[in-house]
Design goal:
Elements lengths: L7 E5 L5 H10 L5 E5 L11 H16 L5 E4 L2 H15 L3 E3 L1 H11 L4 E6 L1 H5 L2 H9 L4 E6 L3 H6 L6 H16 L4 E4 L8 H8 L4 E3 L1 H16 L15 E5 L3 H11 L8 E2 L6
Parallel strand pairs: 1-2, 1-3, 2-9, 3-4, 5-6, 5-7, 7-8, 9-10
């Protein structure tokens, strides 16, 4: 039986989902988190649906062994390709990162033209387009695959003129469509937010699905009666645990550079065994 003091499971293909974990830490400070980054098999964006579903179910199975009460798929590609299968398999509340961001974009656009940047898999799946049109079919959604951005972020080239040049190549077409809203449709992209904002200007509102997912998680836990409502005491074990499938040291260094807590050390596990 799930209890309110159990942790929340969060998973991603690698490090991008840490932006979602960061928003959960900021907005739900009393919640515990178990995070898994599939660093051995990143990126997911160029893999088939069947492979992404298989990976996602393995990770879900592992996170269930950690006694979680709810699951966040902190990966746009896995949300786009595997959310129904994970939801059926998990046996607990599950949310992805697509619907929360899509809803905010649909509610806040002024001219009805919404841009989406993401991996090839997310864009080709029309995940945001379908989610937005389920809310308002009249909105115009323009997607742009940006396959080079994830490697640049993972390489640490967040503030680099090369990244700016590549970003502009991707953003040019969207700006020609006169978008007034842009969804950062990959969990790596909030780390490029300042560069993107500088390039698109103040006339374009940026939607960060990582933040919107944390707020939706807060609402979901409240509805399900699973919200942690008691502060942790000093004797309680460290509330955040991190697991990876490879490169634990590299992951830990990156996590410590963006999270508001000291990660300590991520533990590597053989995820294929799950």
């Amino acid at each position: 039986m799930m209890t309110s003091d159990a942790p929340i499971g969060v998973f991603d293909s690698g490090i991008g989902g840490l932006t979602v974990a960061r928003e959960i830490m900021r907005n739900l400070p009393m919640e515990k988190i178990v995070y898994f980054g599939d660093t051995a098999r990143v990126p997911y964006g160029n893999k088939s649906k069947a492979t992404i579903v298989r990976y996602s179910l393995q990770i879900t199975n592992f996170l269930r062994t950690q006694g979680i009460k709810a699951l966040v798929i902190a990966c746009n590609t896995a949300t786009s390709m595997a959310l129904p299968e994970v939801s059926e398999f998990a046996g607990m509340p599950v949310i992805g990162v697509v619907e929360p961001g899509a809803r905010v974009a649909a509610e806040t656009t002024r001219n009805g033209r919404i841009g989406v940047i993401g991996t090839r898999a997310t864009i080709s799946a029309n995940a945001y387009t379908n989610a937005i049109h389920s809310i308002n079919p009249s909105l115009n959604v323009i997607g742009q695959a940006c396959p080079m951005l994830v490697p640049l972020v993972e390489e640490g080239w967040v503030h680099d003129h090369v990244t700016d040049e590549i970003l502009m190549r991707y953003l040019d077409d969207l700006l020609e469509h006169d978008i007034d809203t842009l969804i950062l449709g990959c969990t790596h992209y909030p780390l490029l937010r300042s560069a993107i904002k500088r390039l698109v200007g103040n006339q374009v509102n940026l939607v960060n699905p990582a933040y919107e997912t944390a707020k939706e998680l807060e609402r979901m836990l409240g509805r399900e009666g699973l919200a942690s409502d008691s502060p942790r005491n000093q004797d309680e074990p460290y509330p955040y645990r991190f697991f990876v499938s490879d490169e634990a040291e590299k992951f830990t260094d990156f996590a410590n550079s963006i999270l508001p807590v000291d990660v300590g050390r991520a533990r590597m596990i053989p995820i294929e065994e799950y």
